[in-house]
Amino acid sequence: MDDGLRMVQARACGAWVLPGGPTCAGVARRLFQRVAHELALDPESTDDGVTMVSELAANTLHASRSQTFPVNPELWLYLRGAGPRMELVCKIFDTLPGWVRGSAPGHTVCRVPADAMSGRGLEVVHELSSGRWGHHLTRSRLSGTGIRGKAVWFALPVPPVGAVAGPGHPVTARDAMTELEQDLSTRGFSGRLVRADDPAADMAVLSIASGLTVWCRSAAAWLRAPGVAAQQWSYSDLVEVEEQAVRAHEMIVATADPFLLVDATRGALGRLPLSGESGGISRETRPGCAPGKGVAGFAIGRVTRLPAGSRRRPAPWSRSGRRQPPWRPACCARPTG
Fold this sequence. Notes:
- The protein is of the alpha+beta class and 337 residues long.
- It folds into 2 domains: 2-162, 2-Layer Sandwich (Heat Shock Protein 90); 173-291, no CATH class.
- Helices cover 30% and strands 18% of the residues.
- The protein contains 8 helices and 10 strands.
- The strands form 2 sheets. Strands 1-2-3-5-4 form a 5-stranded antiparallel beta sheet, with helices on both faces.
- β6 and β7 form a beta hairpin.
- α3 (43-65) runs antiparallel to α4 and α5 crosses α6.
């Protein structure tokens, strides 16, 4: 418990394995209450959070009963934002990508019949969180193998006094990207990441999959993914950057596989927004960047699937039509013109 608490206070992510039986909700309540107390949440918010985490943890029992080889659920807690906008994010992970009953719930929660014996959990979360809740596809944090599933989350405001200074946030883009790369590797992405650094420009780029890249430059991090609007985070919010990157990757995978998509949603799925966790986000391009370009003229390459047995050869030409150095990864190739 103490290690997880210290990680939350230091702007990392505290993660705990929850029991897979009837005691799951009780353990989640005690863990949340301890962290909320140390972060100086007011009593009303703490009580609301305890109720919500109990509801979400209890819902994981449906996931374990519907799977042949269930994996224990997980509780994730981390801080997001700064100053008066700082909040404690609480997520419950389980390995069922979809929902046992009905379609994936939206923010317009329909009230269940008065005589129903169950089904009010998300309705309670919606009311107590004032709409600051959601769900998304993701990967386990504690399995070490990238087990897929979903996370259901809510967020509560935290007084600035509740955040305890940790060892310090990354200062350079290289340090920030190293932290992100290490965290993503623990979630099953090890050996699949392609990275390029430009220390002179204080910039680093990490390619996770085709069209999905994370960028760090000048104390700001942002994500580029198909159909995703642009948003920036500071280096103090690298946990959120990691969460959004994993979410975007899992949605790309699910969209490419109709069976996974149906299993995850039990209904129709539209474009992937990032606004589910942090309010509306406008479409915008980084200052000084042309559409489809990164900062400082870096072009974003595309990764294509090759037939089995074939070998990938580095493309010698940039989008500008000029030859580029062979040592620079295609995801971050700098045009020479």
